[in-house]
Write a sequence for this structure.
């Protein structure tokens, strides 16, 4: 698919150069009506300036080094060498990380499996799951954060898609049902509460829960999950999403809407719409995902490198969530207009890696040889993987 895109761009550049040559021969009587009166020196200078502008674009659009599978594998290997510990009992854990970052980093293992079909990543998923259960048990109901539970629900459901495993399916079904039953209410017309204190209804639970429900529909075939996905998604659209594609943070029962936007919430809303579009074929879902992606790329970051969300315990890993669902929008939704931006971010992060090939979450800054959290370094690994097409994509795509 990318070969086609870059072939077109090369052809465009070639046509442009032919145009310049023709202009030099024919006198090019356009150009605000003045080019026909130019001296040969002036015309040459103008052509050189235009060619220089074209060259400034070409390295970014055409000649740019591509992030390949080998780079993603190397980044994953270095990340695991730095932060992953295997125990003698066959369980694995990410050093220093707790419940929901552990679930999200397990999703990166699922990403790697989807991109390579390599058994080593299927084994890694299993090790991470067993390590998670070893540390947090098989019943996660004592966690007051509904979004934490839903993240491990998604990790299990996606792992089940990658490898049919009844344990993954049972855990995903059990814990989605737990969260939905305790978090859904008719306060504010519906939606899921963020925590068990039932004070705010946040995008950070509703977006992921809609994704989880879609995947459960796919792996169980039970209509109720699709109905719940639509119900959750519709509520979020009506209450926490702007007309411009901004996904707002939360609706507080007392204080109203907090309009802060994050890569986490933009990413999960993109993902929820894409999942519903893939299941139902309804264009409105895809259109909403595109609008949210446009807002993220063009308004939040003006097409530049994502170099924010580096504070606190949670924010540093957020952009890895955006990477996953934006990448799926590219390859599963056919929205290739975001691929250049994704690759720009991946390349920048990789070029700014430290001597151990570790990338901190401030991708535009050089990663130093110092202490960083695994969670904050995981986002760039997700970015590198999710620039890549799924395994077998070019062979299976009808219209890549």
């Amino acid at each position: 698919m990318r070969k086609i895109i870059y072939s077109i761009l090369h052809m465009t550049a070639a046509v442009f150069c032919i145009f310049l040559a023709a202009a030099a021969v024919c006198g090019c009587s356009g150009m605000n009506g003045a080019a026909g009166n130019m001296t040969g020196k002036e015309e040459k200078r103008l052509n050189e300036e235009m060619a220089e502008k074209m060259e400034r674009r070409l390295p970014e659009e055409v000649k740019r080094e591509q992030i390949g599978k080998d780079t993603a594998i190397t980044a994953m290997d270095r990340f695991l060498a730095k932060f992953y510990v295997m125990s003698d009992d066959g369980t694995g854990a990410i050093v220093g990380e707790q419940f929901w970052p552990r679930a999200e980093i397990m999703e990166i293992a699922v990403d790697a499996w989807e991109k390579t079909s390599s058994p080593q990543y299927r084994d890694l998923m299993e090790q991470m799951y067993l390590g998670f259960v070893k540390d947090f048990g098989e019943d996660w109901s004592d966690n007051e954060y509904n979004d934490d539970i839903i993240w491990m629900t998604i990790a299990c459901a996606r792992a089940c898609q990658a490898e049919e495993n009844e344990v993954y399916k049972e855990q995903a079904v059990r814990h989605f049902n737990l969260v939905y039953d305790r978090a859904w209410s008719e306060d504010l017309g519906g939606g899921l509460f963020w925590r068990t204190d039932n004070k705010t209804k946040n995008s950070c639970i509703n977006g992921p829960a809609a994704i989880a429900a879609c995947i459960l529909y796919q792996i169980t075939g039970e209509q109720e999950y699709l109905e719940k996905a639509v119900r959750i998604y519709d509520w979020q659209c009506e209450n926490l999403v702007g007309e411009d594609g901004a996904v707002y943070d939360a609706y507080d029962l007392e204080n109203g809407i907090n309009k802060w936007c994050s890569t986490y919430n933009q990413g999960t809303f993109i993902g929820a719409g894409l999942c519903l579009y893939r299941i139902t074929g309804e264009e409105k879902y895809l259109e909403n995902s595109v609008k949210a992606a446009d807002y993220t790329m063009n308004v939040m970051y003006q097409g530049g490198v994502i170099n924010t969300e580096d504070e606190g315990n949670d924010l540093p890993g957020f952009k890895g969530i955006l990477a996953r669902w934006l990448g799926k929008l590219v390859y599963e939704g056919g929205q290739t207009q975001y691929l250049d931006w994704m690759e720009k971010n991946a390349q920048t992060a990789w070029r700014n890696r430290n001597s151990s090939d570790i990338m901190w979450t401030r991708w535009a800054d050089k990663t130093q040889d110092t202490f960083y959290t695994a969670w904050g370094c995981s986002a760039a690994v997700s970015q590198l993987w999710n620039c890549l097409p799924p395994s077998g994509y070019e062979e299976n795509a009808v219209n890549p």
